[in-house]
Write a structure and sequence with these properties.
This protein is an alpha+beta fold and about 180 residues long. It has a single domain, classed as Protein Transport Mog1p, Chain A (3-Layer(aba) Sandwich), CATH 3.40.1000. The chain has a seven-stranded antiparallel beta sheet, with helices on both faces.
Amino acid sequence: MMPISLGHISVPLLALLFAVTQNHAATEGVSPQEAKWIEIKQPAHGFSAMFPKAPKINPLSSDDSSLSVYEYMAVSESGVYSIAVSEYPLNDPPAADEESYTETINDCAKASSTNIRTRKSATIDGHKAVEAVLENAKHTSVYLLDVVIVRNRIYLLSSGGHAGHENSSDAIRFRDSFRILSK
């Protein structure tokens, strides 16, 4: 199994996510348009999820030529919502052990210049996951981050907003809507 090192994707992905979130003026209320989230299905990347609006899909570059990385991001009034998919070769999948999850969370915090407030084991769509709450030094922006490793893919689910976002109904809706599609 391929060892996990997300330094090659976490800098562009998470730096962008956290920069957008810190410059984003989230509102307290949710407009009627915000309440109508849309489901996207991505069979090519093995998942479906609900987003507040259609996400932009961006291929990301990687230092590892055998790794494909894609990011789905939507910015709304309530925050920034992102799923990054790192796809490894079928014959060399990422390790799904505790060390890999810990390394991934630590890499994300380092790349985004945030602190890990909490970290816990979780289950997402029946799959082992690790969830962390990251926050900036001023405690004004917070990010809910979930890492799910399934077969040859690592999924990074992240949403960010102002303090308290990690417990918001939108952050929970986004996280809980994530599904692995059968192959």
